[in-house]
Design goal:
Blueprint: E1 16-22, H1 26-30, H2 37-41, H3 43-48, H4 52-56, H5 62-71, H6 76-89, H7 95-108, H8 110-121, E2 123-129, H9 139-145, E3 151-156, H10 157-165, H11 171-186, E4 191-196, H12 198-201, H13 211-223, H14 233-250, E5 255-258, H15 277-282, E6 288-291, H16 298-307, E7 311-314, E8 316-317, H17 318-321, H18 326-336, E9 342-343, H19 353-375, H20 381-400
Parallel strand pairs: 1-2, 2-3, 3-4, 4-5, 5-6, 6-7, 7-9
Amino acid sequence: MARNPGTVVDLSGAEIIDNHLHGFRIEDLLAQDPRDFETRLNLLGTLFSDSTLTREAGREDPSLWRQARRMTESTVYSLAARRWLAERLGCEATAEGVAAAREKAFRADPVGYIRALLDDAGVAGLLVDDGFPLPRVPSEEFRAAVGGTPVHRVARIETMIVDARDEAKDLAALEDAFEAEMDRAAGDPTTVAFKSIIAYRTGLDVQPVTSREAAAAYERWRADGWKESRDHAKPVRDFLLYRAAEAARRNDRPLHVHTGNGDPDIVLSRARPHDLLPFLKEHLAQPIVLIHTGFPWTDVAAYIASSLPNVYLDLSVLIPWASLGIEQLLTVLLGTAPAGKLLYASDEASEPEVIWIAARMARRAMERALGDAVERDFITVREAEELGRGILSGNSRRLHGIEG
């Protein structure tokens, strides 16, 4: 990894631990239409690709994908990715040229191709949210797909709830099955954290719920066909998130919580990091990671992390999708929250190249943001590089107990 020209801070040799991404299967990647590869790399393409998730969400209208494809040509992230991949693949920097060269290189040796990308980016570990895609990609299977790069499981609690609720005769049975599954996941040596996407289901405005209230809501929820209503589902999900925090603490695991940005199904008015503040204040001793740093409310998330001792910020979504704006957002975060609470991540959920592109963007933006802090006499070069190495890998290693 070459040094970013013109900066005083050098993070070119710093390793990367990707704190949040999603698994994939080689056969699924090979089944994709190579002509749409470039669009699948960007956020719009990820959200509106022809996937099971998209079809289930009612976004199967082919005109939506055509519009996403048209917008690729005017997306800064996509243009940067095209040029960087063209340089790496030794081809013409056009959508057609990159797609063809990538298809040839990938089909020749998929695992070797992916491992070379990760090695070039200095990726030393991957924390994988196992809630997407489904069925779950086991850690060992994904480790084989990425050529042996260490894979660490982040077990999603909503999947556990769905697996348990249909068989549970009442809330007590659901609670027992849910907590048993959390303990079982913690017994998996690859599991380093638990994660919740309650923001997608009933919102981050989580409230304390008594067992009696949750039991009554559970009966109404089941009678309502498991619809994600605020009247029936929310009391049960809020109740179980409290149980999840207790289980995470009992098993000495951080709890990751999705905040802010999501696909078009999310209700942003209930996904803000400040909505979760009461819950965070009730769990001051439990390490909790705000996945996506509450983007676009990153300044609010930074304030919360600066105020509560065990709240951490995962930088995925703003990296890589903010592209040109990453540096500005990093400056706000670095100026507000302790750098020891910032965790690099890519949120890859489509193509393995996203891991490489995000790492490249993040390393360069971080060098510039930290370099600016040096030039403005806030920190020294040595301090800047130490902070940068922590954000890229060291902080996540310490938080999740990942050995170096």
